[in-house]
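PROTOCOL LOG
Step 1. Enter all chains and additional molecules of the complex.
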Amino acid sequence: MATTFDSSSINNNCNLSNNTIGKLPEESSVLVVGAGGIGCELLKSLALCRFRSIGVIDLDTIEVSNLNRQFLFRREHVGQPKATVACDSIRRLCPSIHIEPFHGDVITDSRFDVSFYKQYDLVINALDNVQARQHVNRMCLLCSRPLIDSGSTGYNGQATLIFKGRTQCYDCIEKPKQQRTYAVCTIRNTPSQPIHCIVWAKFLYNQLFGDNEDPNNEDVTPDADDPENVNNEQDNPINGHHRVSTRDWIHSEMEKFDPKRIFNKLFFDDINYLTTMKNLWEKRRQPIPIEYEKACQIKEYHQNGQGDHGQSTMPKLNDQRIQTISDYVQMFIDSVNELKQRSDKQRQIASTSKEPSFLVWDKNDDADLRFVTASANLRAYIFGINLTSKFDVKSMAGNIIPAVATTNAIVAGITVLQARKVLSILPRLSTDHTLTSIKHLTNVFVSTDRKTGGIIQSIPLEEPNSSCIQCSDLEQPVRVRINMSLFTLYSLYERLIRKHLKMNKPDVIIADGSGRILISADDDDEDEQMMLKTLDQFKLINGTILLCEEEYDDETNEALLQHMKIKLMLEHTDTITDKDEYIIVDDQVIGEIKQIKQSLKRKLSDHDDDDDDDDDDHIQHLDDYQNEVNIVKRTKRLSTTPNEHNTNINTGPIHTSFVMLVDDEVPVHTNGHHEGTSKDDFIINTKKHKQNNDDNFVSNDSNSCVILDDDDKTNSKPVTNTEQNANVADDDCYCVDIADS
Amino acid sequence: MNSNQTSMLTDEEATLYDRQIRLWGADAQLKLRQTRLLLINVNSLSIEVCKNLCLAGVASITVFDNTRVTLDDIKENLTLTMSSTDINEFKSVCTCRTLQQLNPRVQLIAESNMTIDQIDEKYIEQFNYVCLFNYYDFSIISHINKLCREQQHIDENEKKQIYFFCAATFGLYGFVFKDLGDKYDYLSENSVGSESLIKGEGGNETKKSEKITTKSTRNFITFDKALSTEWKPNRRQATTRSAIITYNLLRALLTFYEQYHRAPALVTQDVDVPNFMKIIHEKITSSTAAASSSNSIDTEEFNEELVKDILTDNNAVASIVGGIMSHDIVKAISKQEPKDNFFFFNGLACVGLSIPIAC
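Step 2. Run joint prediction.
Step 3. Record the structure below.
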């Protein structure tokens, strides 16, 4: 057996290229976000490939269904935090490694701020959800750290590279909608597929036990306003008056909470009511209401119609069996009782702690799953729809993404190869994180189920989308710290946006891809109740970016319709206890903006501590962050005092991030001058600019352009589109096959 | 439930294997539970395969290796299963001990007494799959491959087949070869309409895309036969270039073994590297000439550094190639449509291709 190539290795630098200036795994520190399927494989491969300093963030605790692939965990670890157990396992495997677990939510936990990310040379996402990925993407853009985003679903996976300003960021391309939505009427009145009943059952769960404050919490009561029902209105006496919604009905029933009454209300009374909407059933099979006592008698197996999959083969799991209606009745009653008890308990806990007072549906909870399975199947039976096994309900209701160790292992292996390539282009001895050439690098896609050809494929990196709200360089957000659970929408709008940022009446849009409008400029009378709600009630989270956008009508010149945009990044902190208090992290920048606003032509003063009369009493200046602000103003730089609070290896300044921009319609010369703008509007050139490595770049232009740059070593200059493209083409000619180059 | 032991999965298994059952189905999970594997040689790659299949829940894995852990093995801390406390212990024993903890349902057996030439029909009979790792003695590979083939003939009536896999990783490169017999029957599922079968999202509507299941057969060939003639890709070179490099390295490793009766190794790198480099260059020039293409493969690329790198074990590559191979084995177990007989991985380009050679 002497013929093996096993681990008797001496050499430890697998040279990926003849690059000797890059960082070695041993000398770099990596942050891994997520210690799940890919995370476990990733940590193992990083450790075995001699990475010696790793941070691991994970929010979850270990579950039995993780054990088939998350091999750093064993049965005795079930219930413990993933981050901690994963790190313990890796340390056992590799005692010399420095690996630190962080059990917490990467989005909301205030430990994970900019300075936290700056401790690492490279960040790797091994996450399973879009929201957390977007957040880490934003943080990496903010502190100019390279990010590798890895992911897998079933047999497919990918590892993509994100370098600020050099490649597409996670948000450069709009993500397809994660969840399918169904018409409300279909769910409430006319279900025709099992999924409609399952969605209804989940709504019902929220009505009974969930968050009653949640505006997204859909009603499950029959809806008399169904467009199909309109013609019927006159003939139908019941339609005249409002029916009590299930929510209100439940509230009135809470005292004498009786599962049988609930059963009859949902599956008998409501269905009877539905049948009165005659128009709905002209072309549909009319639902047949069932009463509790009768339903208990239905003991035969409900025959699913033809075309149902799985009929030909015998089920191999208990949960794959379709049960009798009487079974589902029992399952309904039992689960309702169980959840009612749990719900009461939760309310008790909530009265003395910060815990929520309601239940949140969880696919891994058996009672939750039984409730949805039973409710959905009872409704399906009533509407003559095929029944669905508990196993399948779990998939459909829980949006379960199937996962297997092999795909994760492949993706993790590729990610580690990518990580080494990324490190090899990071300057070794310098603390600055400017990347050298990225032309060797590719995004990698895996499709293990392909029969032939490219199972693992490399795709050239794509250039950033210049209109991407997250990464386009000049559109950095103004960062503001607030306590999300205290700060109200009113404070946000009146104090922060209108008073402080001097906007008049902007639209405020949530830039999370959903395009939700928080405040509309067209809304004349704001809902006072709405305005007094705290931001967390709008499901805004740490790192949310708000886009405040306003149109100016210049009355003297109608052609000059202008846009002003400010991006606002909300950062949550628990340390603020005053409900109106906020901290502008880069307030200095705001000061600069104000100056520009006052006099566009006036030369900017060289000192940065101009007093501002408008300063709000609530604003607290952060000295630390003042130091971090690095403004490149033409050739002159303001306030680049050394960064003292950040004593680790990365001493590069944290950067200012702000921008206001005007629309492209405003004539802007490439030298930065602009013309024909009204005096009250401040304009900052937002034409694409390119980072220029020439430190001594001097612009001849004197007045109109301020560019706040992120990079110590980099000046910025506005260039035209064509210039930029030409430059990029020069610097990085992408190629697919590296062996080729 | 006891009476159903072989035809049903228990609730506990259903919970444990939930996420993969949703991927490959309960039938495949049942078949996995009846599969017995032999893995020959312990290295990063075989440990990865063993780990994956152990997690997946096969019946048993026999780890065949009679060498002991040396200081060199653990000095660089390169493997999942061997640490400094294991010096002088059999590699197979520590591998089984460590991986057993991942899944107590799988029977892990360490075979540390036998040598590879002692493997005969009798021994091989007990397995469904035989996998050979980082082994470059052509005659032994062919011999084991042949033993698996002969079983197919002996047990034709019972339809007992032993599938043969041979795989290796070298530096940033790796390959997987499989021989699933003369007549591999499988069910190919062609979904009419969308590809949304695996979609975990809300896409699971009742009108699932209709599946048409057809019985198909594919013929595989032995390692011997697959390598008896030079591979001349008929596709455009660009798509296969990264694979050709790996292919040539594999041939170079086989040739080296033939000439020096051992594989090149880092311990003997002073003599091995120059010799091995010479063979690589011969292989590459002959292959470029054969493909009659412009000199797109630069032989200069294989300098001393890179050749040395080829002699090292890289866990990331083992993780990738091991993942592909484990997936192939699961597919064969559940009688799904197989990939081509060769898979080549090139970590420099980060490209992995499934390619049919002489098959």
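Step 4. Note key features.
Chain B touches chain A through 122 residues (CB under 8 Å).
The two ends of chain B are 45 Å apart (CA to CA).
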